[in-house]
Amino acid sequence: MEIPCQKWEIEHANRIGKNTGKIRPVVVTITTTSRKIEILKKKKSLDGTNIYLKEDFPPNVLQKRKELQEDLKRERESGKRVILRYDRIVTLKTRESEIRTPTKRNINKRLMSISPEEAVKETGTESNNERTKQVTKRNKSQTITSFLRPSQLNLNERAAPTVNVNDTLKN
């Protein structure tokens, strides 16, 4: 699996059952949820070995999951994308709705707000969706002059009086 795991990330590890010479399962408690998810995502790398990983659930949840297996199988055969999460069947979004094309990119943007005067002027035929979308923000170039006050920008007023070389040569 090649997942680096520090000693502090394993809270507890113990074998289940009595030592009868048979292979016994090991329950490992991980301290961080992110590490647990990472391990469970990479469990497919153990295919072809005699090692397997699965999440440990309480007995009542295991019983409920067994009962839901038949319903889950029927839902999948009907063409729906469903999975078991804890003790419930969850329907996933279709793959077409997950893909975000550039044309659909701004579909979730907020509409620009309307002042009360404009709301009165708005005709009943125009729907809220026809209002313009908010303009995308642009990154402002941050220069030193944008942080200075206007009085600090006008450096010519404070500078020492300069002498024009041409004036000195004429005298």
TrEMBL record:
Residues 118-133 have a biased composition (Basic and acidic residues). Residues 115-142 are annotated as: Disordered. This is Endonuclease-reverse transcriptase.
